[in-house]
Design brief:
279 residues, alpha+beta, 4-stranded antiparallel β-sheet, two-stranded antiparallel ribbon, 49% helix, 15% strand, disordered N terminus
Length: 279
């Protein structure tokens, strides 16, 4: 969070920075606090970690605010006489995570090209047939007798939705039993088979599943078209990235010397014992 942003100081400092920008790089020390230099690179990282809403501020204001923030952090850090061991453990984890992230970025850049993503699309969808989707309603009751009674009411002219609201114990009962659109594999087998066998407008016989007894009516069907490449590009990219990462990890694991503890050598409950980190 930015604190004590000085507008006038920000403008003056920004002007000075602009004058000398040709000689500056990430290692340039911007400000020194009690002998500790804070570099431009550290400020860039801190700026990148700010919430998106800070983008509305002018560069000079952000520059001053980030610098003030890091100065304050350094002052507070210098004032602490005994640094707890947990800080070192946290820094070790953070460094490991950051470097692993850099490796993932490098792997992604080299392995996941547009051609790879396009090939994944072709493999997944080139020979795919449009899939049928179903829009159905149902009512759920505890016994077959209750299901038969509900069917009788529907056959006598009551609207399916009204009967469902009246008797259904399922979560869709209040909205007339409507399930919305779904495709193959999204419902339990007995229910799915019943829906697929119905004609539009037809009401099923009682159907038993693990949830109870259902009565189903098919409202309409449609074909789910094969998605355009651009609509699934990010999904395919993520899938290809995960495959590449897991393959790399498998290779690294096979080549690594990993000495794991024997079962029971360390009590798993110790993971919650923060007293071990010291004061």
């Amino acid at each position: 969070m930015l604190k004590h942003v000085t507008f006038l100081g920000g403008f003056a400092l920004a002007a000075s920075v602009a004058t000398n920008c040709a000689a500056q790089d990430a290692s340039t020390v911007v400000v020194t606090v009690n002998g500790t230099g804070i570099t431009l690179g550290e400020m860039i990282i801190a700026r990148g970690q700010l919430p998106q809403q800070y983008s509305q501020f002018p560069d000079d204001v952000l520059f001053q605010g980030v610098m003030d923030q890091l100065i304050q952090q350094q002052l507070l850090a210098d004032a602490l006489d005994n640094v707890p061991a947990r800080v070192d453990y946290a820094m070790a984890n953070e460094r490991r995570s950051l470097i692993a992230g850099e490796m993932i970025d490098e792997l992604t850049e080299s392995a996941i090209t547009d051609d790879v993503v396009r090939a994944a699309y072709e493999a997944k969808f080139a020979s795919a047939e449009p899939q049928t989707e179903y829009n159905a309603s149902h009512l759920l009751v505890e016994t077959e007798e209750e299901a038969v009674a509900a069917i009788a009411r529907i056959n006598d002219g009551e609207a399916f939705s009204n009967v469902a609201r009246d008797v259904s114990t399922g979560p869709t009962g209040p909205n007339g039993g409507n399930l919305g659109w779904f495709g193959a594999g999204q419902m339990v087998p007995e229910f799915e088979q019943t829906v697929m066998a119905l004609e539009v407008g037809e009401v099923s016989d009682p159907v038993k599943t693990q949830f109870g007894w259902h009565v189903v009516t098919l409202l309409e069907t449609r074909n789910q078209e094969i998605p355009a490449f651009d609509t699934v590009r990010q999904e395919l990219f993520a899938e290809a990235q995960e495959v590449a990462i897991q393959a790399k990890l498998a290779d690294l694991t096979d080549a690594a010397d990993i000495d794991r503890p024997e079962p029971g050598a360390i009590d798993p409950a110790l993971l919650t014992n923060f007293e071990l980190l010291g004061q």
